[in-house]
Amino acid sequence: MFYILVSIFLILLLFGTPIFIAIIIPSLISFFTTFQNLNETLAIQRLIGGIDTFSLLAIPFFMFAAAIMSEGRIGGRLVSFVNSLVGHLPGGLALATVVTCTLFGAISGTGPAAIVAVGTILLPALLKEGYSEKLALGTIVSSSTLSMLIPPGVAMILYGVISGTSIGKVFISGISVGLLTSAFFMLFIFIYAKKYNLPRSKRATFKEVLHSFIQAFWALGFPVVILGGIYLGIVTPTEAAAIAVAYVIIVELLIYRSLKPLDIYRIAASSGRVIAMIFILIAAGSLLSWLLTVAQIPQMLVSLLDGMNPILILLLINVIFLIAGMFLDPNSSIIILTPLVYPVAMSIGVDPVHLGILIVMNASIGMITPPFGLNIFVATGTFKVPYERVVPGLVPFIFISIITLLLVTFIPEIALWLPNLMP
After folding, report:
1. Which of 28, 44, 349, 359 is the most buried (most CB within 10 A)?
2. Which spans in 328-351 are helix H?
3. Would you kindly state where each structural domain of the chain is located, as residue ranges?
4. DSSP-derived secondary structure for 47-87
5. Contact, 40 vs 330, CB < 8 A?
6. How confident is the model at residue 20, as a pLDDT?
7. How many C-beta neighbours within 10 Å does residue 210 have?
8. Is pLDDT at 213 greater than 70 in this prediction?
């Protein structure tokens, strides 16, 4: 059955079939050919049951909030505030790009939203200040992946739902890993800026910093309210997602007045179409996961890898997700592969939170890795720049991300020390 699934799946992908169809068709074929004695309604029940989970409500809420912010003023106000703090350093505006994307990640949870909301402001500014297009694009597109690592991330929610791991703990784990990745990006830019004498802005006065802080106050309050509520156990991630939508609507509609009520309706309709596609994908993945479990494929993998060095198994999992990320979007790779690798990782004693953050890190790297990294194509469409001009600037950041991934792989405490402090 496994070979039928894989063969049909790959053939459908080669013909450009949408991912959810490429999952559902081989799953249904396998179901009806392998389990002929089962009622066909069971397949429908598995599809529906896959999305009948309270935790999954966090996904549409956070995505809706991110879509509103992409068209509002939160991104611009964050840019101004961060630039007032670090703009005077070597490569200051590039450093501000990394910090802003990190902060925006704590608000949106999706990489493409960061490219649209932050990148459209920063790319013209970077080019105007004399940065090369290569470095400017590389910094923006690579930093957008921090939105996946800094909670609340949609990929983290998916992993938590599929594996049964605490979404709150995976969220909190992402803070240390996201900040570490951000720090490495900034270190590279700082060294590069010193070597090539990149431009820096005039140091902002205290009055200018205070003014930009006041302007960005409500945007900066967003992660405090959301993450603080989760960390202190006041709200669940799903409840925090609902609060996120209410918060961003109030800020953009009533405080910043960047949007009108009809804009909210339009954004809701647009977000609904994207969310519907993701939930169909989740439903299809649920059927696939059930079939693999019934066929005992995960158990076979555990037996096959029995006796192998745990570090080698973790490295193998990294390689699998890195390769998948080059060809599939993050949601698809997590939905398809997590049911396979999770039992293997648990059999060698890997902490499920540690595994989750490794999977999310791999997915984030895949978003900027050729040939089909999702954020590369988002950047080409957003900035109207050819594919071949986006990729070169990503290379150093991909290497930095892989180094960070290896550190977190070999030193689990990097990812686990904050979750271990949770009540």
Report:
1. 359
2. 330-347
3. 2-31+42-421
4. HHHTT--GGGGHHHHHHHHHHHHHHSSHHHHHHHHHHHHHT
5. no
6. 76
7. 12
8. yes
Distance, in Å, from the CA atom of 123 to the CA atom of 80, rounded to the nearest integer, reads 14
Q: Fill in the amino acid letter for 347.
A: S
> What whole-number distance in Å separates Cα of residue 58 and Cα of residue 295?
31
Sign of CA dihedral 338, 343, 303, 314: positive
Residue type, 268: A
CA distances from 106 to 101, 172, 220, 247, 301 (A): 9, 11, 9, 14, 36
Helix 154-163 × helix 58-71 angle, to 10°: 180
Residues whose CB is less than 8 angstroms from the CB of residue 148 and which lie 6 or more positions away in sequence, other chains included: 105, 109, 110, 111, 154, 155, 156, 330, 360, 363, 364, 367
Q: Using only the alpha carbons of the chain, give its radius of gyration.
A: 22
Q: How far apart are CA 187 and CA 192, in angstroms?
A: 8
Contact 110, 69 (CB under 8 A): no
Helical H runs in 164-308? Answer: 167-196, 206-231, 237-249, 261-294, 297-304
Q: Which of 55, 125, 51, 61 is nearest to 92 (CA)?
A: 125
Question: What is the pLDDT at residue 356?
Answer: 94
> What angle (nearest 5°) sits at the alpha carbon of residue 400, between those of residues 154 and 180?
60
DSSP 138: H
Of 105, 109, 118, nearest in space to 182 by CA: 105
DSSP state of 349: T
Please give the Cα distance from 103 to 151 (Å, whole number). Answer: 10
279: tokens are 């939930």
Give the lowest-confidence range in 17-26, 167-176, 203-212. Answer: 17-26
**pLDDT at site 407:** 95
Q: Which residue has the tokens 């990640």?
A: 105
Q: Is 369 left (phi over 0), alpha (psi -120 to 50) or beta?
A: beta
Q: Which amino acid is at 86?
A: V
More confident residue, 351 or 129: 351
- Condensed to tens digits (0 to 9), the pLDDT of residues 130-185 reads 889 999 999 999 998 888 888 888 889 889 988 889 888 898 899 999 999 999 99
Give 326-371 pLDDT, tens digit per residue.
887 788 888 888 888 898 888 888 999 999 999 999 989 988 988 8
The tokens describing 30, both together, are 């396998």
Q: How many helices and strands (H and E) does the chain possess?
A: 23, 0
